[in-house]
Amino acid sequence: MAYQEIHTAAFVPADGLDTLSTELNTLTFPEHWRQAVLDFYAQTRSEKGRSEVLEHQSVPIKRLNHLLRAVAPGLVSIGRWAPTNTDQPWLYSEKEFSPQALMNYVSAWLKDMAPKEKGTQQTVAASFRPMLTTLRTMDPATLTWDRTPVELLRGTVSEGGTLLPDSSLYRLLPEYAASRVVALGPYRFAGEEVHWHRAAGYQEAELISDVLSYTPKSRNHTGNPWYYSGYMRFYLRTEPFSTVPRLHVETGIRRWTSGKANLQGTTGASAYLRADATLLPQAPTPDRLAVAYLQWDPRTKRPEWRTGGPMNMLENLAITDEFPDPESLVKDGTQWLTVGEGPQFALTYHTTMGRHSVGSGIMPEERRRLMEWVAAALEPEFVPIPALVRAEPPKGTVVIDRALEKTKKVTGDEAKKMALAEENRRIESRNARRRRAHLAEVLKGADLSAMVLYQNSGIRNQMIQAAEESLDLAGHRDGQGPDTWVWRAPDLTVRITARLAGEITGPLGEATAPKRGGELKEEAAKRRDLVKETVQGILSDSGGGVQVAYVELDGVKTFTGKRIFAPTQDPKGAIRAGAAQARIVSQFAKPYDPQDAPEEREEKARHRIESAWSDGLRQLGATFVPRAGEGGAIPANLTQIAFWMVRRNVASKSSFSQFTPIALLNRGKGQIMGCSPDTQGWVSYRDLLCDLTGQVESPRNEQDQAAAVASFVRTTLQPYKFTDTLVLLHAQNSRNRWPWLGNAGLLQDRVKLGHGPDQRLAVLGKRMRVIRVASSDRAEVPQWWAPVEGKDAGFTEGLWRAGDDASGRVFYSTGRKPSTAQTHKGVAKLTSRTVETGKFAEDGTPKTRDLLVPSAEARTPQLVQFTLTGLLPGDDPAAWARFLHEQRDGDDYREHLKLPVLLHLASKANEYAIPYEDAGDDAAVDLSDDEESQQMALF
């Protein structure tokens, strides 16, 4: 069905609404407190860190804010840093909160800041006197709550015409919207009610539904139920070149651990708590769900509470008795869950914990109904944004040359199906030969030499089969086993050397997980050197020339049956680093998954191996990028350049950081090229990936990184000043070090590098266009559905624009539904739903179908935003947006990509960001929830 419009889960103020006020209790961070904490914090840093603290004059308050989320969920904290302007409130609350209770939280926070004895959580003795001195200057009596009117629509407009909301509103307006929804009462459908409960938000306002349960009817099931809830998250967002604020509402399913929880393969899990009484003397009873964090300690092999920094501030507050014992919760988290009520205490499920019988996400029809209910709560002040309508340039405006043919859908009677299947086999054979010819062109006359390091021969054999089918090699085999396979086609010789992987694929540290920092660095270096030695030995035996290694990587079997690695034992980074030092790119192949149904196991493994083989070839730069054809509005000789900030922060599993800007180049044909500030011009994609691995010197502070990005962009684009060039940028990836890419900085047909002045785009290139791509990370682009009058909402592929977009520069792209997504679009998870099938029983009564299917995987193809920041006079914005939309449908990918092909390949370079320097004093703790994205991001 060709849907003509799509709706989004987003709301805007009603026409004519220019002001919207509410009253809240506010509390500022006292100036003398700020200075006292600043001085204490500076004393706890290294000499370099101390100078940075005093230079920026800001107190890091993120960890205190996380503590408040756990023990004082009714408080809304604003910002990561304590305000430097004491007129700006620090805390907002619907109720006053005891100053003495707040002082207790601050005391725990100061103790958390203090340096610790090496290898322990004990505060360094020399820190006690400065800490006590600081506390004596912080009199709780100076904390005064004020009843303050808050304007929820206040803001200014950027030079580019984009709304700049007051920074506090990013928390306050979502909280206001969530309170309106809760005040409406329960969500009702099909005679059932679901109540929603406010939870302590982090960067959003969150609602959690009553606990729901699902008991599979499978013969092999134990009969125990699986638990889950719905969630809604509210975000304030803006759109480029628009002065209207937007409320985005994200909906999905929060799965709770049901039975014993396995934390060993996770960095932690969030836990939701509804307190029956105050958690601390003099503090009020929380009126919403608190959120705390549970993590697995590999040293003690026990679960423990975590809040904020490495010190457990909950213990400092002596309130951990109010929380269930971590081991008790992990052993059986269901004892606090009651169906039909809000969670009393619930631990979030993570995919590494094993199988959960409740599927992720909700389907479009249920999302549509929920948004109708939310709309009733928000009206008349807020209304749904207008529908997005199809944005099609005139026929023939955009001509796309594709290297590979699409196979045809096999339908019809048996004879027609057989004919179509035979035709598809011929198409696949032609595509394989074209793929082989392209690979030969990329390798410039060299043989393709691959190494397979396997753990079981079945995976090795499937890899051999994947190579033959992918490149049409079956009739060209010239050598077979036991360790080497050779094919000699007219245009390309392919050689595969296979060896048992041995100990290189085992967990780091073997039986004992290494600690983050020095131990992890040492174990990773050992494995890296072992891999390098192993690979070089195989190269010597096989005559060298290997470009790519395929590694079958199994995990450690857990009690759930799932095979995973503990966070500090995953060897992928070390294996990749060792192979890269031998100038070999690497691709990991997942073996048989014991949780796959036996009848599906072989087929799923085959698909995984085929994908792994193709991904390995892409790392060699052998990727088809859809190119502009002759006779269209897009130049046929167009050069595309995609920029990406390769970074690994210290919160990642490696515990080491890296920041390197890179660029990828495609001229319409040939291999993908890449460069970074450390390369001498353009190099092969393979060489770029290898160069990113290992010891990479990175600018350490934000200002230096922004300057490095500006210099790199200017140098990279200089040779293309008079060439038709399309520059692709990703908003969420790059704007922190290239502020112009944020909505607030965008200017049409102008560009700003680093902290320099804005300038005409023509200064960078006379024939240059720039498109910024934004994905749905953190709900920056809303969820969506395609409506049908009188029928269930569904999905559709296409290019879209907002009917009220005055700029004409903002477009939206949706990919087609994945071929593996078979869930009925009307499936429900929050309430019962029964529909008539259109068939009748023998007695004439209509047959019905139960669409309450909690087990269904219900993911939505992602809505992606294209902002055409820079165009030339006379360019048709819709044509350029259509061209970029086609880039999401890569010739040699089964499904639509989340990003256009070149940006997608640039993003994959992050997998090679594996430096081994120490993180130093700037280490931060990642406290993001272990949650799945409910909008599908393929590959």
How do the helices and strands line up, and which of them pair or pack?
Layout: E1 5-8, E2 10-13, E3 21-27, H1 31-43, H2 47-56, H3 62-71, E4 75-77, E5 91-93, H4 99-113, H5 128-136, E6 146-151, E7 155-157, E8 163-165, H6 169-183, E9 187-189, E10 192-194, E11 196-199, E12 205-209, E13 212-214, E14 226-237, E15 246-255, E16 269-273, E17 290-297, E18 302-306, H7 313-316, H8 326-331, E19 345-347, H9 364-378, E20 382-384, E21 388-390, E22 400-401, H10 414-443, E23 448-454, H11 457-471, E24 477-479, E25 484-488, E26 493-500, H12 518-542, E27 548-552, E28 556-557, E29 563-564, H13 572-581, E30 585-589, H14 598-618, E31 627-628, E32 639-648, E33 658-666, E34 673-675, E35 683-684, H15 685-692, H16 702-717, E36 725-730, H17 731-734, E37 750-752, E38 758-760, E39 768-774, E40 784-788, E41 791-794, E42 798-802, E43 810-814, E44 834-840, E45 846-850, E46 860-861, E47 863-870, H18 877-887, H19 901-908, E48 935-936
Parallel strand pairs: 23-26, 23-27, 27-30, 32-36, 36-39, 46-48
Antiparallel strand pairs: 1-21, 1-40, 2-15, 2-20, 3-5, 3-6, 4-5, 7-8, 9-10, 11-12, 12-14, 13-14, 14-15, 16-17, 16-19, 17-18, 21-42, 22-31, 24-25, 25-26, 28-29, 32-33, 33-34, 34-35, 37-38, 39-47, 40-41, 42-43, 43-47, 44-45
What is the overall pLDDT average? 86
Helix content: 25-40%
The beta-strand count equals 48
User: Uncertain segments of ≥5 residues (pLDDT<50)?
Assistant: 650-655, 916-939
Question: What's the helix count?
Answer: 19
The biggest beta sheet reads: 13 strands, mixed
Kindly report how far apart the N and C termini lie: 26 Å
Radius of gyration (CA) equals: 29 Å
